[in-house]
Write a structure and sequence with these properties.
By secondary structure, this protein is mainly α. Helix content is 57%, strand content 3%.
Amino acid sequence: MFPSQLLDSAAPLEIYITGTPKPFYLPEAMLASVSPELAADAKQSHLVASEEAFRVFVAWLLYRDLDDIHALDSPTGQSSLAEAWNLGAQYHIPAFQNTVMRMLVFEFCGAAVDIEAVKQAYHTSERKTELQNACVTHIARDSHDPHLAWKMETFEEFEMEKVPGLCLDLVIRLGAELAGREVRDDEDLAQAENFMVHEPSPFDEILDDDRDDTINLDDDESVTEG
């Protein structure tokens, strides 16, 4: 590799976010280590995300948690976190999604579920995501608290009845509670672990290899009994 190529590979990427004139600067290798897809998109074009949501991602990328998110002057509102979770889903970064979910559930437990966070949760063609599940679960929980519960005026003012899938999910969740098929437990609902996505581990590859070996052994006609 020529010296100029070495310099180019070490230079950070200029990452532009839709609607934000100033770029972010991050090493391509750092991005690729968590999502080659994200690194490729960042290199080729603008990323479709808000500055607030991407700052949440940058904080996690640097620290691998969000305890120090204020070090980057990053807002931690429910809407930004919900959008950040969707960003992680889009680029298949489950560790990031789960870190965001822990913070988001913490926010849900301290205040009513934010309208904009719900809109972000349903701003996708995917259905039954863990983010949607978390929002609906906590809206249902809040329905028992007059200080946190959404009112009919809320639906009408913000046209929440037009959010695809939301009303159906709420009816199913509330119906299950009323029918007694699910036992309400605020402490259980407060656990972010209820809404985690699967994080692959090295053991997954080992298990997959074992399954492949078993299948190949069963299909091998040269192996006979007795």
